[in-house]
């Protein structure tokens, strides 16, 4: 039985492809984007989110934790020793106040399909389907392939949301069962891309070009962050003018992930970044349109 690691299943999603969809978020990513709004998706390991404002100091987690990872400090309050934590989730399962939340679960193809087909009628009535996202779902390509095959056996529309930073052999595993690719484009300049994500973008662009040459349906997603990649629009437009894609979606940076950084005790590198105004995002869309690119604000 093939299993994979996920951290969330979002039903009735309307942002990740056509129609009403279920989006499955895979855990683990090989990029470290400075603006990531799902910091819990980066590590493959199970993690505990600690929401100190909910903690009532009952002490149950101190008693039940087999590793002694929890402590209460005079000035810092409730602390988790992340090096000791093994992600068993015993503390979260016994937290009365829901101050502790476990993130990450191993799931079989069969079990995940049970959740997916629950809304099968909504998919068919709306032209929707299933989207596999992350993290980076392509890092678990064998598990992903089995899920895609199971979805196609039920005639469900399938989409993959990817940054494309994986060997082409990973794409070859899923090509025959994927209807749509939501493909992230964060920067074209290789040095800028590495500064923003920690990785070079050569493989990303190569894979994108290969997908377009195969005639695959592709929607490009551009996260738009003022002060980080807003100067990359010209390079992006030059690249996209030579490719055939369905459309380009410009997504404005937001701060919905800030509380999760705090709960995971992770550094938030974009805490001080400004949220782009709607006018600024529309201006970016209009710039791309003038270059002959089918772009929309998402």
Quaternary structure type: single chain
Main structural class: alpha/beta
Residue share in β-strands: 15-25%
Poorly predicted segments: none
Number of helices: 11
How would you characterize the largest beta sheet?
9 strands, mixed
Please report the distance between the alpha carbons of the first and last residues: 38 Å
The overall pLDDT average reads 96
Overall helicity: 25-40%
Anisotropy-based shape: globular
Work out the radius of gyration. 20 Å
Count the E strands: 13
- What order do the strands of the largest sheet run in, or round the barrel if closed? 7-1-2-8-9-10-11-12-13
Would you give an account of this structure?
The structure is a single chain. With 298 residues, this protein is α/β, with parallel strands linked by helices. It contains eleven helices and 13 strands. It has helices at residues 60-64, 90-93, 109-116, 120-126, 141-153, 168-174, 190-197, 202-213, 233-240, 258-264, 278-290; strands at 3-13, 21-26, 47-50, 70-73, 77-80, 100-103, 105-108, 129-133, 157-162, 180-184, 218-224, 247-252, 295-297. The strands form three sheets. A nine-stranded mixed sheet has the order 7-1-2-8-9-10-11-12-13. The protein is globular and about 60 Å long. The model has no long low-confidence stretch (mean pLDDT 96).
